[in-house]
Amino acid sequence: MAKLFPVPDLLFVSEIMIRKKRIIITTAIGILTGLYCAGSLLVFAPPGVTPEPWFMMMIFYGRTIQGLVIGFADGISLHPAVRGAALGAIFSLLLCIVPLFAHNYTGAGLLFVFGIIYGVLADWIASRVIQKETVIPLK
Fold first, then answer.
1. Is 88 exposed, middle or buried (0-12, 13-18, 19+ CB in 10 A)?
2. Cα 108 to Cα 94: distance, rounded to the nearest angstrom
3. How far is the C-alpha of 4 from the C-alpha of 41, rounded, in Å?
4. Half-sphere exposure of 111 (CA within 13 A, CB side)
């Protein structure tokens, strides 16, 4: 006899909750790094140069999307540092286009390097938090 309302497997529900938490953690880290990256552009811009608001929004949006995608990438079987660095590099290439066309090679290099660092941090922190929660104590 078929059940009218099937009860989901408890393990499956906990995996969904863990994945949600990972996505929330990495997206929050992406938002924070986006704010920091755009804010540091505003603070450390050369004298007399005002960063364009659309570029600052592009940086913020790029870092936020980077964090979101890193949250979904837990199924890729690589070490979290390698996976975060690879995704950080991919998403930072988008942000490096504008400074490269403006012949600001230092700015493009900094965006690229810090994107890799932010990717490693986001994936490593989320993996550590989730790993600590999934450890089942022995009784």
1. buried
2. 10
3. 57
4. 28
Type of residue numbered 126: A
Q: Rounded to an integer, what distance in angstroms lies between the CA atom of residue 44 and that of residue 57?
A: 17
| Across 42-54, average pLDDT | 84
User: How confident is the prediction for the chain on average, in pLDDT?
Assistant: 86
Query: Would you give the distance in Å from CA 78 to the centre of its chain?
Result: 16
Q: What is the pLDDT of residue 48?
A: 80
The answer to whether 49 and 14 have CB atoms below 8 angstroms apart is: no
- Per-residue pLDDT, 123: 95
Residue 43's pLDDT band (cuts 50, 70, 90): confident
**Burial grade of 137 (CB within 10 A; 0-12, 13-18, 19 or more):** exposed
**Is the full-model pTM beyond 0.70?**
yes
